[in-house]
Task: structure prediction
Amino acid sequence: MKILVCISNVPDTTTKIAFTDDHKNFVTTGVQFIINPYDEIALTRALEITEASGGSVTVINVGDASVEPTIRKALAIGATDAIRVNANPRDAYFVAKQIAAYAEGKGFDLILTGRESIDYNGSQVASMIGEFLNIPAISIVKSLVTEGTGITCEREIEGGKEVVSTPLPAVISATEGMAEPRIPNMRGIMSARTKPLQIIEPVEVAQLQNITGYDKPKPRSQVKLVPSDQVKQLVDLLHNEARVI
Amino acid sequence: MSVLVYTEHSGGKFKKSTFEVVSYASAIAEKMGGTVTAVSIGDVNADELSLLAKYGASKVLNVTLDKLKTFINQAYASVIAEAAKSENSKVVILSASFSGKGLAPRLAVKLNAGYVDGAIALPDMSNGFMVRKGAFSGKAFADVSITSDVKVLTVIPNSYEVKENQKPSNIVEFNPPVADNDFATMVKDIIRASNKVSLPEAELVVSAGRGLKGPENWGMIEELAGLLGAATACSKPVSDAHWRPHEEHVGQTGIAVSPNLYIAIGISGAIQHLAGVSSSKVIVVINKDPEAPFFKAADYGIVGDAFEVVPQLIAAIKEFKAVHA
Result:
């Protein structure tokens, strides 16, 4: 199977988020960047599938040269080769269009993404690629197995799960449960240096929206402590003061 | 001019999050001087459909095609796009449910529309169309300005209140042609835990962490959640250790929740967990370590051993319910 895995370069989960004084930009100084954790799950599942039944795993990222360490890490984990679309990933619509433009006509059976990136949390790219390529897309999938010429997925729904089958090609966004992410080994790290990384230029995309600013949640006021032998008092507070029960 | 709202249902019944998005659409329509059209797909009876008028929908497009009885992402997106075109809708609203998150991006592409996922408040339309959403997995907000003619939004469940705004009920059949190609996927099974409250939509959440020591101790968490009508949740180390299923994992790489009340038991409050709960309205922390970072992000707290405090809390809630039943 020929698989394309879309990866984002995101701040490490332990990052404390800070913005410039005018609230316009995210401050990247001192921030460690990683492969988006959900994309890593997708990548691992892609490798499991190709290890079991042959094929190749190409990773694609839309970003400038600074993301190359993240792409190399994906190669170290086991991807066959990589594509970097040389552009600022300004929004999901732009990114999805770049990936669709690259994938069009290349014969990928499966295009995998993470359920969302942990920076902009859009959950948009997978379905948009599906629409641009006019193929099925299934979002927030926790199990993906190949079955004959297609695949069967378990998709999360409110209070349960839905089992969906689809012919290929298709786009799937991965969530926890689909695979356990792998740590690259020394051989992987060494071989990643020489694996092909192709840089391509972006296609033009209309801009339909832009981020005008950022803000941070207001800190909560001082916690009100209830003595551990006065638990009833907590119930009173939740009912009479907070009015949530 | 109309605002279109997709009214998701579960087994023929509309969910609270559906009435939230109808109320939300209705508030936008009033500001823009337009009306709300709802689009419902599948088996929903006339009584249920007429409920939509109560929250401001002056027209309901009822799509009853047999092939559309189960959710097919591509086909549903096509139907909603056709509805938006036939109604000349400038704004299309969906719930940020699992299905909504899959539909909205396709719709946005079909309609050449800018799309903001997971709005947490009404758009600011004083100068353009600006929508606030969560970013950095709950650690921040982003304000996104949509500049396209048509706009698509999804709204986070439990972030906008249901508001009544009665309109006369007007239900019309709507069955646009849908291409065969849109029916490639097939739903083989739907598995629902019938007695469980769905976590992303929950108004109350009882969550527990490693302080519980092992999966065998979750009985009291489930009992407390059951008494409150709350969803159960957990921290990442707990789901990583397979004490609880992944779909209960709340945090930066799990589910982000926005309940009215989040009770965290035996969870220290790592930055990744706090990100996922930051939009909870009220947070209660129960932890035996007074230095646990979660207390700094809490509204109420009890410093104490979960195995002593939770049984007392269960008793207190039972007593409370007996009085307020």
